[in-house]
Amino acid sequence: MINTANGMMSTSxxxxxxxxxxxxxxxxTPEGRYKLHYEKTHPSSLLHYAHGKTVTQVTLAHLKDKPAxxxxxxxxxxxxxxxxxxxxxxxWLGSGNGSRALSFVGGNGGSKSxxxxxxxxxxxxxxxxxxxxxxxxxxxxxxxxSNVGDAIFISDLNSQEKDPIKSIHFxxxxxxxxxxxxxxxxxxxxxxxxxxxxVYSVSLRQQLQDVGKKLVGAHHYNKDGCVNNSRCTSIxxxxxxxxxxxxxxxxxxxxxxxxxxxxxxxxxxxxIKDQTQFSVAxxxxxxxxxxxxxxxxxxxxxxxxxxxxxxxxxTVGRDGYLRxxxxxxxxxxxxxxxxxxxxxxxxxxxxxxxxxxxxEDDLVQVWSMEDRKVVxxxxxxxxxxxxxxxxxxxxxxxxxxxxxxxxxxxxxVGQDTQLLLWDLVMDEIVVPLRRCPPGGSPTYSTGSQSSxxxxxxxxxxxxxxSSIRDVPKISPVVAHRxxxxxxxxLIFTQxxxxxxxxxxxxxxxxxxxxxxxxxSNTESLSSSAKDKLLLPSKIGGSSxxx
Length: 546
Known about the structure:
By secondary structure, this protein is mainly beta.
């Protein structure tokens, strides 16, 4: 365990998961100290690497109250709206199990019967009618879903127990991506994409109620790669999409599915005429699932993310490009090439004005939807940037909420094992000046802005890589080595920052003021008092948004 009072590890920690030498249990920011509160890991005895290692990703999921009891063959799924995966869930969450009940997400407490067409066992699923149920589980709480090896692990965020409370194993392939629908009131709310290209949708609550180690009540899509046989790379619910979700693949294609449709129907699409051009093809039959194919690029799509209103979809890929689409209109809006190499990750600001990207050029790039181009480069990582996210709960310690200037706080993690925090105020960005060449025209003065800033990029065009002298540079306010292994992602919650390494170890860093409050009151607080403790408040000179 982590003793947050003195920042030291207790002797009860196992040697396999103990804090590595040289790693501090806190880091300083302008608003105060973030302290390592506890860690989540997995028993090494549960891992099977027969299918090769995969990079761990983490999804935050919140279940509200347990719904009314139902029989295993209860009503069919309703079609809840959703938002874009990890950072979308973090927008509302941050409370742990046993804390206040949020009214955003629900799950399906009962099992769902599955038809013979979707009942499968080859990849570790089982029929709900034969599974055993944990009748004592109430389902309420906040959970971390992570993939390690051939397993999905589910951990209780608010518990300081290191080990997961649930493991789900797949016999023929590894899970590589997942997404939770925070708006689903019942039915399937969890998506899992596999290295084999298979996709599953399940009820998270139903998995937690079952005591087995196989998926229960699963719907199976793209079974055995019948639609696309290249591995899944990223998956996302469509915000406001009534149960619609998008799966990206390593061959540059994305597929749009509806969770209420059988995944075994005819799903043939027209041949892609030009592999270099973006194109959309729709299914030929109304009962087909997937319902559409988007050919985005040549090479792998590495990550996808929806804006919070669902209007835009961002993709980044092996070809080094960010692409932004008007999702309802199925049109390319803008995009551009990174400075060097592949782009690995992307994330939206809450207001939809900016997109972060990170990749093999070691840079964090800030893209503006208004200018439709990159407007800032963050320099600070020493290796590939593997995860980026905006902190929607943070506001400037000096801000009273009335200032016209908006400051953004965002974070990034990389294979250099570092967590970097950045502050962005566009009004304070210094635009590089255009250099006057020797013997140049007097009208081409050093006082004019770089040509990079002359015009807004035309709609529907992809910009070439910018010159390194044309883009403003920003530096991190914090750089902290948080793990001994390369990092793969981060999540901001109202109370903490979560970091995860590629090997599947998760650390929860409490925001300034919160760790002290929790440690001093842990012994005496009742469950109802803990609810009050986690309510939004101004702590340590910083306000954290609801």
